[in-house]
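Re: the 248-residue chain
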Amino acid sequence: MKCLICGKECKNLEAHIRRLHKISKEEYKVKYNYDGPFMISMSDEAKAKMIEKKKGKTPWNKGLTKETDSRIKSTVGRKITEEQKALISKRTKEAMQRPEVKEKLKEIHKNFHTERPEVRRKIAEASIKHWEDGAYANKCANNRFGVKTEYNGILFRSKTEAKFAKYFDDNNIKYEYENYIFKYKQIDGLEHNYRPDFYLPEYDIFIEVKSKIVMTNLVKAKLESVKSSGKRIIIADLKMLPQLKYIL
């Protein structure tokens, strides 16, 4: 591929125009009315040759450190300018729109969520061990469906939970946040930990807070783990909050 700016033949046109001419792929397309490819794909035969050529060779920087070799540069303490941050962000967004990148990410995601029983068992055992530690549970208050909210010195997993805590305080209802653990089993047969959101000692009841009540099999299994221990538990959303004291 020939660069329309300087006329140089390139195998990777995108990298060439970005490094030498400081212009993005999108800007290049518009400015020079270009709709051709930006990279020459290697054939399977060429890839195999390249891999074979590299076999048995030791990378030049293997085992070297910045203390033993001046060519090794340290990134410790290096500051990234706002301009560099913006450029990194821009290139990342551009890359995420490329079909080949999307497919690669899908494959990585698929491989990460393994179905192998031995791997799932190890992950579950490690999770149970970590979540039995209250400090770890508080540190990981990062529900992806909610926004972490601090209220009265407690970091709640969502704004909804914080609103419930404020409601309890306004109505002089004592509560404990995620202080109890119950065991439940999922479809995979493995045992997991469940911490109900609130426990009201004066009423001897647990409250599970949801932004929207949806009774999935997972939710049912968690609720059943509490009920089987002889305790009461109710699931509540913001619509129920004004009437909660009458329900208790």
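Residues 61 and 72 are 8 Å apart (CA to CA).
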